[in-house]
Amino acid sequence: MEGKAAAERIFEILDTPAPADGSSQVSLAGGLEISFSGVRFTYPGRDVPALDGLTLTLPAGSRTAVVGRSGSGKSTLVGLLLRFMDPDAGIISANGVPIGDLPAGAWRQHVALVPQRPHLFYGSVLENIRLAKPDASRPAVERAAELAGAAEFIRLMPHGYDTQIGERGQRLSGGEAQRLAIARAFLKDAPLLVMDEPTSCLDPESERLVRDALDRLALGRTSLIVAHRLNTVSTADRIVVLHEGRVVETGTHAGLLERKAHYSLLVGAYEDMPA
Amino acid sequence: MRVFLRLLVFMRPYKWRILLGVLLGAATVASNVGLLATAAYVISAAAVVPFLAMLTIPVYLVRLFSVSRAASRYAERLVSHDVTFKLLAELRTRFYARLAPLTPASLLRYRSGDLLSRIVKDGEELQNVYLRSFSPVAVALAVCTLAALVLYTFDPTMTFVAIAFLAATGVGVPVLVRALSKGLGQRQLQLRAELEARIVDDVQGVQDVLAFGREGGEQHEVSILNGKLGRVQRRMALVTGLQNALSDLMMNLALVTVLIVTIPLVAAGKMDGVFLAFIALIVLGSFEAVAPLGAAFQVLGRSVGAGERLFEITDSEPLVTDPCEPLSLPQDGTLALDRVSFRYEEEGPPAVRDVSFVLRPGKRVAVVGPSGSGKSTLVGLILRFWDPESGEVRLGGWDVRRYAQEDLRSRIGVVSQDAHVFNDTMRNNLLLADPEADDVALHRAITEAHLVDLVEGLPGGLDGYVGEQGQRLSGGERQRLAVARALLKDAPLLLLDEATADLDTVTERELLGTIRELMRGRTTLRITHRLVEMEMMDEILMLDEGRVVERGTHEELVQRDGPYRRMLAVQDDMLATG
Q1: Interface contact A231, partner B, CB < 8 A
Q2: Do B58 and B131 sit in the same domain of this protein?
Q3: Beta bridge partners of B152
Q4: CATH topology of domain A31-110+191-275
């Protein structure tokens, strides 16, 4: 009987349909433009959709910041863009080709993700950065770390790039883990950058280092930054405000402040405090 | 050996039960041997005796043995499992009781996963000391002695033959198997741990694995590990098979040899042939007692290992101890740090150096600085998780080492970065702070911490489950729970350790409002790396690399061109307007 119950639980996972793979290709000449049109997504077991008819275009080479209260659908956007799940309705396309028609693995090669909480695998710093490109040479890894502003703290570690980190290794601070993730993204050198900012705040100095590294990384790429704490929004070409799974405002920092609507309320919350 | 003796000490309170369990265990096997042997005797004798009535007593014995076998088996299981679970409970309680005073200073060296596996797995392993190791050995000794005594009444030679084969099976075969599988068990454990760690790592990091297209590579790594594990397991299975085959071979050889020795005795008329089958079955039956010995020795090895790991923890001295005659808490609630220095490891860099400040009742002091500057260490020192290397932490003018830890902590309410939500009802999560609180007090704390909406939304209200198996709380709700606990505890001194660090801006602002209410009328020490609401503080200490580099009020520090103003500038710059 126990065996039967165990088998049922295993089959429940094996039977979960994986997102279907397509076989189309996308041309990257002239950069990568991403567009969401009428995208709707509801998490299994929930009633309220996380994204409800979202329409949004990220022009090639532009830098877009997405802001909104927690639960407004910001992180869902990231999951859909990386095809960790597929939308219930609507289309996400890259240079006009629906990403659902591309093989998931091939599509993800075009995307560099800097997640909210980068996972550090048990292994050396070198191996952790190399995750992005297993055949990268050591100098290439070191250059990526340099660009990510991570080289300094790595050099201070007991065995430099060969220091073991992750669950059974040395602990890194939140800011250090972020910069390691940015180093991975530099090494990957993909045309689309997706950054999901951490919700918890780093101390101001680490936050500045992360932001500087990010500025360098975003150069010449299409980038989407999910800003939970509004730290990086000011350098974005465009700010998109999400509310209950929909875009409610779009514009520049100054323009949105003038409208005195959703965005200025969010900023107000942030600015009031250090007053 | 010392570890084994210490484990035996744990069994001492249960010695009578253990004796009873062993006796019952021996009775079970002996009944079986008796059943086989007397049955054989009855069958043989029935062929030769003139009157079946002469067999009345042996026939009754057969019935008796078959009933006593079942009964003693049942009773033995009852007694031995009772002992096992009592032992396990005792071990866990003792272990936890030793653990609590060690927290967290000495335990910092162990990773949480390691600690958990020590308590759970090693504890579980130890329950086998009695059930699968001590008891089988004692039973085997008892049964073999009994069998030897019975055989000896017939002939010494066959007794020695039987003993020799029993010893070879019980001790010789396990020793041989151990030599063959040397290192295999260790290797298997190691590979399995590595495989598990790899899979957990890949599951937790699945986003990054997928995002970087490494799923194929990781699958390959896992299958390589799996293959290695498979090869080791195959060799283990071969060794186990060999063990079983050898045991059977020994048993049958013993039978053959005993017959070779005994048949000439019958032929020479020195022994009645009726007893031949009786003797053969006594020998065969006795092997039931020695069969589990191989496993018993293995278990013993593992248990001693587990015991060693547990004792390693319980033997470490608590770094913080209560004084023999603790002072009662003073009226005066002034908290003072006087040139306090502390380092986590003897050779390591100091975490705080020469920190001094005075926090008078009703006042507010903030300690600010970048992460790793030693802010949280101060909290640990004030709560006496650690004692300073030099300098003193004083409450009401006396060194905190003069008070009992429990008394000291009863004066301090803490709201830290991530409050732990126990997998329990909302009520019990709150009662942690004050087990005596009545519903009125609970509702007041819930209202003041702005948790009303959450509690009303819980199925079952206050008695609704939260945490892992109940409703998950968001970061903001967790911190509100911590505030509610602090309100219930109603301690005069409040420690806010990065209480809002893990929250998004909007939630942070809402929580700060609640915390302002909590601070009203309480002496407050606020630890933060975010310079928010600093103008409310009576003194601000700027910490860098464990040292106070700047101090003063917000107004004073803003005037000065120092680290505080720079930190403020970097922070404001984050929101570069325009």
Answers
A1: yes
A2: yes
A3: none
A4: Rossmann fold (3.40.50)
Pairing of strands B352-359, B493-497: unpaired
* pTM exceeding the 0.80 threshold for the entire prediction: no
Residue A94 pairs in a beta bridge with: A34, A97
Q: Could you tell me the fold of the domain covering A118-189?
A: Rossmann fold (3.40.50)
Domain span at residue B14? 1-154+274-318
What does the pLDDT read at residue A270?
A: 57
At residue A64, φ and ψ (nearest 5 deg) are -115, 135
Q: Closest to B207 (Cβ–Cβ): which among A115, A188, A230?
A: A115
Residue B575 has pLDDT above 60, yes or no: no
Residues B20 and B48 in one domain: yes
What average pLDDT is seen over chain A? 85
**Do A212 and A188 contact (CB within 8 A), yes or no?**
no
CA atoms within 13 A on the CB side of A13: 4
Last residue of a domain, one of B287, B318, B349: B318
Are both B284 and B350 inside the same structural domain?
A: no
Inform me whether the C-beta atom of residue B156 falls under 8 Å from chain A C-beta atoms. Answer: no
- Choose between B505 and A58: higher pLDDT: A58
Q: What is the mean pLDDT of residues A205-224?
A: 86
Domains of chain B: total: 2
User: 3-class DSSP state for residue B501?
Assistant: coil
Of A82, A131, A274, the CB nearest to B572: A274
Please check whether residues B301 and B446 belong to one and the same domain.
no
Helix axes B15-48, B135-152, angle to 10 degrees: 40
In chain A, what residues touch B213 (CB-CB under 8 Å)?
A: 105, 108-109
State both tokens at B425.
């009802």
- Same domain, yes or no, for B124 and B31? yes
Task: Give the angle subtended at the CA of B158 by the CAs of B154 and B162, to the nearest 5°.
Answer: 120
Distance of CA B425 to the CA centre of its chain: 24
pLDDT at B116 over 70: no
